[in-house]
Amino acid sequence: MLADACPENWRPHLLDTLNGDIGRHIQAQLNAESTGGYVYFPPAGTLFSALEGLDPSSVRVVILGQDPYHGRDQATGRAFEVMNGMPMPPSLRNIRKLLECDVGVVPGDRFELGCWCNQGVLLLNTALTVRANSPGSHQHIGWQAVTDQIIKIVVEQPEPTVFMLWGAHAQKKAALVKGAQNQVLSAPHPSPLSAYRGFFSCRHFSKANEWLIKHHESAIDWTCAC
Q1: How far is residue 128's CA from residue 143's CA, in Å, rounded to a whole number?
Q2: What does the alpha-carbon distance between residue 72 and residue 87 come to, in Å, rounded to a whole number?
Q3: Which secondary structure element, helix H or strand E, spans residue 187, and what is its range?
Q4: Cut 0.85: pTM above it
Q5: Given pLDDT bands bounded at 50, 70 and 90, which one contains residue 60?
Q6: 160/157 Cα distance (integer angstroms)
Q7: Which run of H or E residues covers position 161?
Q8: How many angstroms separate the CA atoms of 112 and 168, rounded?
Q9: Number of structural domains, the chain?
Q10: Residue 157 has pLDDT above 90, yes or no
Q11: How far apart are CA 73 and CA 41, in angstroms?
């Protein structure tokens, strides 16, 4: 069951959803994918990797993606992250370019997002699975209810949190973000189809740190990934 794969720090907050009708429906859909001969990503044991090492009160930044990468050996369970040794997809390469523009990291090919998560950055996709080679294929199997609940859990914490919403899909979630302790930053999606519309000038990494410092929290060392 999905609840068994959910990290313990989050399980009490998500148990009703994962064990209820929505969770059972998602599990049934994933089972049907497998029995139907389809492959989905990420692997079953990594569905909730975005939550690993975090608890709701430790989240300081949320970066929302849409769904996992749909190619083999790409998706890790964290938004925009790829497995070690895999080439950077175009959106991830553009996120690295934003770092170059915003905080001055030198151009390069290394970009490993795990160190962000260790500092309280939640890399959350709004759908946690995708069928191989079929982007958006699991957007409507029930994951939205689960990930909306995760967002609400973070929003309800008293600690300050910054939500980076890139693109129209992510920006729909702004309605869930309430409270003076929470800051929403919106920009075009880093996809090559839209990044040129202002993504590279959004300065979200430095703006997030300005917000955190203003609220007496430690800044994120964004450069550790490069």
Answers
A1: 6
A2: 12
A3: strand 182-187
A4: yes
A5: very high
A6: 8
A7: strand 161-166
A8: 25
A9: 1
A10: yes
A11: 9
How would you list the strands of the sheet with 121-125, edge to edge? 121-125, 61-65, 161-166, 182-187
Q: Which residues are catalytic?
A: 67
Size (the chain), residues: 226
- List Cβ neighbours of 166 (8 Å cut-off, separation of 6 or more): 63, 64, 186, 187, 188, 189, 190, 199
Token representation of residue 69: 């990468």
Kindly state the DSSP code that residue 226 receives in the 8-state scheme. Answer: -
Q: What angle do CA 93, 96, 97 make, to 5 degrees?
A: 90
CATH code for position 59: 3.40.470.10
Reduced to 3 states (helix: H, G, I; strand: E, B; else coil), residue 10 is: coil
Secondary structure (3-state) at 61? strand
pLDDT per position as a tens digit, 64-93: 999 999 999 999 999 999 998 899 999 999
Classified as helix, coil or strand, 69 is coil
Contact present, 132 and 38 (Cβ < 8 Å) = yes
Residue 216 to residue 214: CA distance in whole angstroms: 6
Both tokens of 11, joined, read 């399980």
Range of the domain at 20: 2-225
For residues 70-100, b (16+ Cβ closer than 10 Å) or e, as one string?
bbeebbbbbbbbbeeebeebebbebbbbbbe
